[in-house]
Design a protein that fits this description.
This protein has about 100 residues and is mainly alpha-helical. Helix content is about 60%, strand content about 0%. The two termini are about 35 Å apart.
Amino acid sequence: MKFYFSTRQIPQLKNLSIDERFTRIRAAESKLTAPEKLLVNVIKLLIMVPVFVFVLRTFQDWSSLLWAGLIILAYPLILKPFQYSLCAKYLKQPDDTNTKE
């Protein structure tokens, strides 16, 4: 599985506007199988549980809030490549019949 860090890197979405790319990504997300959805949700859970642990530890050490903030900022950097990579196989190839030469 190839990891895509941006929707522009996905070959099927390369020449589309940002609105069209995200519309197609959302449509592809709805086609994910149950194990794929489970994998994405487990990854979300593995990212969010430490955030709550660090928030609960603020009574002992206030600097744990900084760690919680860093994890929240890293959330899209960790999750989006998994989502884009799983959705890429459900995207249709671009239509070359509409181009005029």
